Amino acid sequence: GAGVSQTPSNKVTEKGKYVELRCDPISGHTALYWYRQSLGQGPEFLIYFQGTGAADDSGLPNDRFFAVRPEGSVSTLKIQRTERGDSAVYLCASSVGVFGAYEQYFGPGTRLTVT
Amino acid sequence: AQSVAQPEDQVNVAEGNPLTVKCTYSVSGNPYLFWYVQYPNRGLQFLLKYITGDNLVKGSYGFEAEFNKSQTSFHLKKPSALVSDSALYFCAVRDMVDSNYQLIWGAGTKLIIKP
What we know:
The complex is a heterodimer of chains A (115) and B (115).
Chain A: E1 5-7, E2 10-13, E3 19-24, E4 31-37, E5 44-50, E6 53-56, E7 65-68, E8 75-79, E9 88-95, E10 105-106, E11 110-114
Parallel strand pairs in A: 2-11
Antiparallel strand pairs in A: 1-3, 3-8, 4-5, 4-9, 5-6, 7-8, 9-10, 9-11
Chain B: E1 3-5, E2 10-14, E3 19-21, E4 24-26, E5 31-38, E6 44-50, E7 56-58, E8 64-68, E9 73-78, E10 87-95, E11 104-105, E12 109-114
Parallel strand pairs in B: 2-12
Antiparallel strand pairs in B: 1-4, 3-9, 5-6, 5-10, 7-8, 8-9, 10-11, 10-12
C-alpha cells in the first residue's frame, strides 16, 4: 500500500517568506507526527495529531510555526517569517495509534532551505 | 527521565563480518524499544521493535536485536554485513507505563560497511 508522502521534496525560500509543507499519511492511521531533523541528528519532535486535533504542540519552537489537520488525514505545517535557522529536513510520520507499541512510518521528508 | 544513548557515532565493519550497533536506554517503567534506519536522502524506515516476550527480536533486512533488561540495552545485530547496510541507525524508546506517548530518540550511529 501507499506509504506516507510529503510535498514538496525540496523547498528553497527567502528569509521572511511564508511556507507550507504537506503530509499525506497512511490511510487509516489516526496519529500523525511532525519532526524536524538536522544533518546527522535524530528527529526533533514538533507536534502530533490524534484525529483532527493537535494533541501536543509543545515541540513547536515558537509561534511562527503552526500545523493543521482539518479532516483528520492530510496535514500542513506552516512556517511564517522564515529564518535561516529553520533550514532542516521536516519529517512527517503516521501510526495506527499513539500509545503503546505502535511504530511510526515516516515520509521521505521535505528539505527546507532558507536563504 | 527517559533517555536513549547510542555510544558510537560511527561503526566500521568489513563486508561479510558480523555487526553490532549499540543502544542503551533509561525509562522509569518497562520499555517499548525500536530501531529505525535512514539511508542517504531518505526518510526513516522501521526495522524492528521489542514489546514483550522473546529477548531476541527479528526484523527487516536480516537484522535482529537483543533486549537485555539487566543491562538496559537493545543492541542491533546482523550476522553478515552487506555494503548496502551502510546507513544511519537510530534507536528509540517509549515507556510502557508513562503516559507520555513520545518516542525518545538516540542521536544515531553511522554504519559503514567496507567491501
